[in-house]
Amino acid sequence: MAESFLLHAGLAPLDREIRPPLSGAEALAEANRCLFCYDAPCTRACPTHIDVPLFIQQIATGNTAGSARTIFAANVLGSSCARVCPTEELCEGACVLGDQHKPIAIGPLQRYATDHALRLGLPILTPGPAVAAGTSAPTVGIIGAGPAGLACAAELLRQGYRSVIYEQADQPGGLNTFGVAQYKMTPGAALAEVEALARSGLDIRCGVRVGKNGTVTLAELESRHAAIFIGVGMGAIPGIGLPGEELPGVWDALDFISALKLGNPEVIKLVSKASVAVIGGGNTSIDVTTQAVRAGAAKVWLLYRRGPAHMPAYPHEVHLALAHGIDMVYHAVPRRILGSEDGQLRGIELQTVPADGSPADSRSPSDSTVVLEASIVVRATGQRGAGLAAELPVRTTAKGVVEVDAWGRTSHPRYYAGGDCTSGGQEVVNAVEAGKRAAQSMIRELLTPLGQVDAAQAQAE
Question: What global pTM score does this model have?
Answer without folding.
Answer: 0.89
